[in-house]
Each structure stands twice: as C-alpha cells, then as structure tokens.
Fold Aminotransferase.
Amino acid sequence: MITSKLPNVGITIFTQMSQLAASSGALNLSQGFPDFDAPQALCDAVGRHIANGHNQYSPMTGLPALRQQVAAKIARSYGVSVNADTEVTITPGATQAIFCAIQAVIHSGDEVIVFDPAYDSYEPSVALAGGRCVHVPLGGKDFAIDFQKLGEALSPRTRMIILNSPHNPSGALISRAELDQLAALIRDRDIYVISDEVYEHLVFDGVAHASVLAHEELYRRAFVVSSFGKTYHVTGWKTGYVVAPPALTEELRKVHQYVSFCGVTPLQYALADFMAEHPEHVEELPGFYQAKRDLFCDLLAPSRFSFTKVTGTYFQLLDYSQIRPDLNDVEMARWMTREHGVAAIPISVFYQNPLQEQRLVRLCFAKREETLRQAAEKLCAI
Ligand code: PMP
Ligand code: GLN
C-alpha cells in the first residue's frame, strides 16, 4: 500500500486537454504555449553553443552572463537595481522556482494564502512542504483581490502569500495601489511573498506592469519568479528565474541545488546572447500579443460567447452562458473539443470551491493568425 503524499492530485488539466485535443484532432487553444517559432537567432544560438562545447554543468546559481542580462532587463523595465550574483538564480522553469521558494521557507503547519482561481502548481508544492493552503477567492467579474477577505484569512500561522500578476487564468493585473495595500496589511507580520510574474511582459493597452521588484517594501520579503518560456516563446525549454533579496536567495539556493543543481547550459548561453543582442524583444512583446488578442476578439465579436478583452497574459476568458448554460465548464471544454474542434481550459479546476453559476472557459491566443482565424470560425459556428 502506498500512502500518497498527494492523495488529491490527478493528471493536470493541461495534460488532459492537450491529449483530448490531439485525439479529437481539435485546434489546441487549451494548454498555454505558442504554435509559432521562437526567434531564429535564439534557436541558432543553442546549436552554436552545443557545437562549441557548452554542454557541461553550468554554475548552480545560473550562468553569470544570463544573470547579468536578467539584472539589466530588470533595471530597464522597472528602474531598480538587483545584484546578479546574490539576488538572481536561474532555474529549470518557473514551476521549479516556485517549488524551491516554498520548500525553502515553509515549515510543517504553516499556512500559505493563495487566491482562487490559482495556478495549479502552488497547492501541491505547499502540501509537500507540510504547509496548508488557505484559499481566498478573488472578487467578482474582475478577479481583483478582496482585501477584506484577505485580512480575515490572515492568522498567526500565515507564513506566505502567493501573488500572480498578470493572472492565469483571468488575465487580471494587480495594481501598484494594491501592492501598497498589501504591504500595509502585512507590515508587522512575518510573512513571505511569492510573486509569480511569468507574464510580466504580456500587459496590454499601455498599462505598466506593477512588479513586486519595484516595490521596495514588499521586495524585502519576496521571491519574484519569471519564465523565459513565456517571454521568448520557448515554453519547452523550461528555463526560468527567481529574484529575491540575498538572505532569501541563499535559502532558495540550498533547495535548488538539490532539486536540480542547475539549469540547462546551452539554453542559458543562448538566452544570454539573445537578450544582449535584442533588448527590444521585451519592449515589442506587449504590442505583438495585443495584436493577437485584438484579432482573436474581433473575430469572435459575432459569436454567441461574451467576453471582456484581457489586460494581461495570453489567455482570453469566454463566457458561454448564452450557448450551453446546462453544461459545467469541464463538460463545456470537452464538448467544444470533441464536437467543435477547439480545445479550451475550464477554469473551475483552479478553485477550491468552484462557483456553481460561473460559465467560463480559457482560450490561449499565443497562436499564428491562421490558427486564430480557424479557431474563431469554429467558435462562431457554435
Ligand atoms: N506560473 C504561471 C501562472 C504559469 O502560467 C506558468 C506557465 N506554465 C508557470 C508558472 C510555469 O512556468 P514554467 O513553464 O517556466 O515552469
Ligand atoms: N502554464 C500553462 C497554462 O496555464 C501550462 C503549463 C503546464 O502544462 N504545466 O496553460
């Protein structure tokens, strides 16, 4: 008999829906990943570095050149200076960064606040550390933090709050004023923050991303996590990073060095080169994805789905209550995939207590124009 450490965990919704999309021959707008290529120069650089013998372990903390590029990008984007040696750690993906940050500071019996809906990796990572997630629902239609409910959820055992902005699956942003409010709320408490900012450069309509990196007070207690996968269209490279003050970084690295020791060497070389040669990539990203969002939303205007354009991420929520109110969102996502050839993600799976009346599915618009046109045509026919 195996006594499972994660008795409530099954196969993730991303695997389930991508498999169903493949077996149904549906367009896969479920799991979040681009169906277009990464920049050619970035891909070429990987081959070059492999040919040049960069195939052995990189430093545990990450390739110095890449950590420096991350620090330089942070300075350009947020006007703050972080130390590339003592505050930046390269990890095999943001998922691993989040896992290590949680293992580093969460003790048995600690409580961790997550906002519902929340990305699916947080809770199992907390459970493996012996902690317990306390779920605080985000408010209403705009998925904003409800500070009243957050305040009520705090207890002497609260050791961490996990933020995610831009937010998966809703696309909602946390504003600078909300960060101020959060800082005031936890000012005299011993609480860490993970700020999952993997979609930091996918923010639209001229809005500036309010990074915890630029919030001096919150940053002192924070692990800020990002992913090269999202920013450089290479989700399969599983390369990310975490930025934290030196004392927190030291604890994080104690875990990271035994979970994976280091990231993949030639990928780090390639990313460092590309970031040095193409700093404009990051600046062009909001416009690039905003055009995809606008195209997809314009094409869906005649459909029976209702929606408000997202302000961040590469996901668009669609309300289907005018179409099949009789189906819950898991049934709807499967029906759309099997019967209408477009795979989506139901968002109830990201909740502890799904809202019974909610009729929302998430679609990924990180796709070629042709894919978006084909998907929209199918969606408009429903
Ligand atoms: N956090 C969020 C909110 C995400 O959507 C993702 C994407 N899968 C991750 C973390 C993980 O990123 P990575 O693929 O770099 O592990
Ligand atoms: N972050 C991706 C999404 O939300 C999925 C990542 C995964 O499959 N684990 O779609």
